[in-house]
Each structure stands twice: as structure tokens, then as C-alpha cells.
Write a structure and sequence with these properties.
The protein is an alpha+beta fold and 534 residues long. It contains 18 helices and eleven strands. It has three domains: 204 residues; 103 residues, no CATH class; 199 residues, Cathepsin B, Chain A (Alpha-Beta Complex), CATH 3.90.70.
Length: 534
């Protein structure tokens, strides 16, 4: 009997194998078995009509959301006096501007969800129809073959029997190919819908902060705050995970601590300062640590804050396709640097360097320790380079990384295995996101395709995903490297390379071994990921 619990990727993978088995079957019984196996793979499941009904409801909601956007936008453009302030010092204009952007995003989200459901419904309708046609061909082939041969029947095959078997095999092969194509359509459509809906859900960020300690208007403003460089929608300072964790942290505070934290927010000199205080709380720091951090950043302008506290920023043109370099890497790469010094590895420390930058992305207190030193006030790129290198070596030792000995001068780092990578990701990043990492091999296109929705959901929520890539160098030796997925827009993934750059690659690049675009042609295959557990 078909297994309705199969995933879309399972069906796709099984049918590819059964199609090969049918096409290569050399006798009647083997062919019958392969056809029956293919028929036992479940058909694409789901109700296109139900999806269409939901999409229609979203269409009406989108019209209402658009009306709200126009009304709020009119107020935002007209402007309001600065007299009214919220409990965290968010002036009326900030609130209205944030509300306008939120209303616009709500309109886009509802329309995006409607579009995702319509595309899924259309693809599912086609896939179910094609699957049905393929099954009819398989059943026709079974009818031509009749019952299985016995031991003696199988010993001699007459010319007419052979011709009938080969004709049945051709029909069955065509049917299995059609079923596999249908499974591909259903799988691709399901993953694309999951990707888009997860992204839209993560972008409804203001609602993630479930606390009564600050007003709804102030929560709206916090969710809207972005760094000054790059498009706002690609450089928002607080992720969905930040807002959720900070809200829970505020709910756990006693009355005195709540009042003190609200005072710090209210006295912030910029929206960005407020956002970084909330991000520090979300990273797991107690009120005393947040207070010390606040004293170091208080009154700094948004450019200083972004430079010291945000290791990765995204340029507006960063997704442009500008072709490839001779080494196979993308021409369009963004340097991620502190005053010219890249957030890059020293020596063979790609694994700890990936993790160090990943932690700095989710923990602004840690980022400031690296960029600003003990006082938090330094602005010296050379001192940053030294601190970053020392931290990479510390984390290399923490993960029991390999070393290459060069007597009498000591040793230098020489790589780290996946167990060590899991260890340091869980020691350095997990406490600040609330999610432990689990190692998962992805050594085939199907495995990478299957894990994509989980990667994209984690990244949309604000949890970076370390990956391992590999290939062979010019000498034919294995080459390996560590990188990290830090962003997602549509079918594109933003990759941080600890050589100090970020690059966008497509889902298709990730699945089909073209990850050299983020590094070089020696490193095409994403063979493993470290996924944040739910």
C-alpha cells in the first residue's frame, strides 16, 4: 500500500530509483516487482480547492491591508509634532513611520502568502494529474505482463513473449518517468511554498515580542529599526528570534529591573541604540551586563554603532549577478570589515572563524569586545585584528582543533572535524539564540534539497547556519572549508565566508554543487550543515 506519510523528497527520490529499475529490468519478474514498487509510492497529497479557498480569503484581507497602508502612509508623510512620546522614547513620527512600513509589509505578506498558495495549488493540480496518467501506464504494463513466471517459465522466453515484455517495459518506463516528473513538481512547489511562508511568518516580527512591559507602539518601532547602511528591509537590527527572546526576558524581570530597563530604553539617543540594548537582552545577558554595555554605547551615532556591533551588513546591489571570476567565485562579493580589517580567518581557522563571526552577529556585547576592546571605545582596526585572531585561536582550542607542529616555533591551527564544529557552535552561538545545533550530512542533491526549508526557516528567524563545503584542489586532494548561511531572500541564500566576504548564491547552486561561487571552484559541494534545533 502507498505510504501517505512519505515526504515530497522521499517520493521524488524513490521514483527516480524505480524508474531506473524499470528501464533496466532484464526479465519479467524483475519488471513486475519494479512496477509494483513504483505504484506503492504515494501520489502527491493535498487539496488544490482548499488552497484556492484560502487564497481567496487572503485576497480580501490584502485589500483591507492596502487601505490601512494608504491611510497610515498619508499621516506619515504629513508629519506629526514631536510632543508625543512612547514609554521608550519613540516619538510619534517614529511610531507612525513604523506603522506605515508595517502596514505595507502586512499588505505584501498577505499578497505573498496568497501568491504562494496559488502557485502551490496550480503545481499540485498538474502534479496529481500527471501522477494519475503515469499510474495508468504502469497498470497497463502490468496487465500486459500478466502473472509472475514460475521457475521453469522463466528459463525460456519466446520471441513473442520477449517482444511483449519489452513493449510493457517501455510503457512502464514512460509511466514511471511521468510519475517522477510529477513528484518533482510537487516537491519543488511544496519547498517553495514552505520557504516563502516561513519567511513571511518571520517578518511579522513585532508580534513576536510578547510582553506588556513596553507598549505596542514601541514594539512596532523596535521591530522596524535598521542600520543606516544598506536597504532597511535587509538590515533590520532585531530578528524574529531577538524579539521573542527579549520579550520573554522582560517578562522574567522583577518590577525594579523592568523599570531600570525601560529607563535605559527611554534615555537612548537613537532608535539604533534602543535596538542594540534589546538585542543584548535577547542574547542572554543579565541586566547588569546590559547596563555596562549601555554605558559603552550610549550616545554613539548610528554609523559607529553599526560599525562596532554588526559584523555583516547587506548592500542594496549585493544580489546583482555580475558573473564569475576565473577561480569560479562570484564577482559580486561584499567585504565585511571593521575599518578596512575584514572579519576573516587567521591561518587555517575557517571553522572557529565562522563560529566567532556567527556569535558576534547574534550578540552585540561580544561584537563590541572584539571591535572596541575592554573599554568598548576603541576604533583601531589593528587592535581589532589582533583580538579577532586571538579569539579564533581560543575557539580552535575549545573545539579540540588539529594543529600542525613547526618545531621549534610551536604549532599552527590545521583544521577541525565536524564534532569539534558542533561543540563550538553549541558553546559559542547556542546560548545566545536558544537553539542547539545538530550536525547533518548532505552529501547528495536530494539531501541538500530536503534540508533547505529547515535552513531557510532558521535563517529567517535570525539563527545563522554553519555549513561545510568540499571538493578537490588542483593536485586532486580533498579540499574542505567552513562557511555560514546568514540570509535568505526569495530563492537566494546569503553566504558568509570567513575569508571576510558575503555572497549570494541560489538554492539551485546550493543543491547542485555550485557553492564555489561563495569561495572558489575547488569547493563546490555543501556536504554538511549544522541546523539549529527547534
Amino acid at each position: 500500500m502507498p505510504d501517505a506519510g512519505e515526504s515530497t523528497t522521499d517520493r521524488r527520490e524513490k521514483l527516480a530509483g524505480y524508474h531506473r529499475s524499470i528501464a533496466g529490468a532484464g526479465d519479467k519478474n524483475t519488471l513486475i516487482e519494479a512496477i509494483q514498487n513504483a505504484l506503492n509510492v504515494s501520489a502527491p497529497v493535498g487539496s488544490p480547492s482548499t488552497l484556492d479557498d484560502i487564497a481567496k480569503r487572503y485576497e480580501k484581507q490584502a485589500e483591507a491591508a492596502q487601505d490601512v497602508f494608504y491611510r497610515v502612509q498619508e499621516i506619515a508623510v504629513t508629519g506629526l509634532p514631536d510632543a508625543w512620546v512612547g514609554s521608550t522614547g519613540a516619538k510619534a513620527q517614529e511610531v507612525v513611520s513604523a506603522a506605515a512600513r508595517s502596514a505595507g509589509q502586512m499588505d505584501e505578506a498577505i499578497r505573498g502568502a496568497r501568491r504562494a498558495l496559488i502557485l502551490l495549488s496550480d503545481a499540485l493540480t498538474i502534479a496529481q494529474s500527471e501522477d494519475k496518467g503515469g499510474r495508468e501506464q504502469l497498470r497497463e504494463a502490468l496487465g500486459m505482463l500478466g502473472s509472475e513466471d514460475g521457475f521453469f517459465d522463466d528459463m525460456v522466453e519466446k520471441d513473442a513473449e520477449e517482444a511483449e515484455r519489452l513493449r510493457a517495459r517501455n510503457i512502464a518506463s514512460a509511466g514511471a518517468k511521468t510519475m517522477h516528473a510529477a513528484a518533482e513538481k510537487a516537491d519543488d512547489a511544496a519547498r517553495e511554498a514552505a520557504r516563502d511562508l516561513n519567511k513571511l511568518a518571520a517578518e511579522a516580527r513585532a508580534g513576536k515580542m510578547k510582553t506588556d512591559n513596553i507598549s505596542a507602539a514601541d514594539r512596532l518601532v523596535l521591530a522596524d529599526i535598521a542600520g543606516p547602511n544598506g536597504p532597511a528591509e535587509m538590515n533590520e537590527l532585531l530578528t524574529a528570534n531577538d524579539l521573542e527572546r527579549s520579550g520573554k526576558a522582560m517578562e522574567r524581570m522583577n518590577a525594579a529591573d523592568q523599570a531600570e530597563f525601560e529607563r535605559m530604553l527611554a534615555e537612548s539617543k537613537s532608535p539604533q541604540e534602543r535596538a542594540y540594548l534589546v538585542k543584548a537582552l535577547a542574547a542572554g545577558h543579565d541586566l547588569n551586563e546590559v547596563s555596562e554595555f549601555r554605558d559603552k554605547i550610549h550616545g554613539k551615532d548610528p554609523q559607529w554603532l553599526q560599525r562596532h556591533l554588526t559584523p555583516v551588513t547587506t548592500a542594496g546591489d549585493s544580489m546583482n549577478n555580475e558573473g564569475l571570476n576565473p577561480d569560479g567565485s562570484s564577482v559580486n562579493k561584499d567585504d565585511q570589515a571593521f575599518k578596512g580589517e575584514r572579519w576573516s580567518q587567521d591561518g587555517n581557522t575557517c571553522v572557529p572563524s565562522t563560529v566567532v563571526t556567527g556569535r558576534a552577529m547574534v550578540d552585540p556585547v561580544y561584537a563590541l569586545e572584539l571591535t572596541g576592546g575592554p573599554s568598548g571605545q576603541e576604533d583601531d582596526p589593528a587592535a581589532f585584528r589582533e583580538r579577532l585572531g586571538n579569539e579564533q585561536l581560543r575557539v580552535h582550542e575549545e573545539g579540540d582543533g588539529d594543529n600542525e607542529y613547526d618545531f621549534p616555533f610551536g604549532s599552527t591551527p590545521d583544521g577541525m572535524d565536524n564534532d569539534g564544529k558542533t561543540t563550538i557552535a553549541n558553546k559559542e552561538i547556542s546560548p545566545h539564540t536558544g537553539s542547539e545545533y545538530e550536525f547533518q550530512e548532505t552529501r547528495s542533491a536530494d539531501a541538500r534539497r530536503d534540508v533547505l526549508p529547515d535552513i531557510e526557516k532558521a535563517v529567517a528567524e535570525g539563527k545563522p547556519v554553519p555549513i561545510g563545503v568540499e571538493g578537490t584542489d588542483a593536485k586532486g586532494d580533498r579540499a574542505g572549508h567552513s562557511m555560514m548561511i546568514v540570509g535568505q531572500e526569495g530563492d537566494m541564500l546569503q553566504i558568509y565566508n570567513p575569508w571576510g566576504t558575503t555572497t549570494w548564491v541560489s538554492e539551485d547552486d546550493f543543491v547542485n554543487g555550485r557553492m564555489g561561487k561563495a569561495s572558489d571552484k575547488d569547493l563546490p559541494d555543501a556536504y554538511a550543515v549544522h541546523l539549529p534545533a527547534e
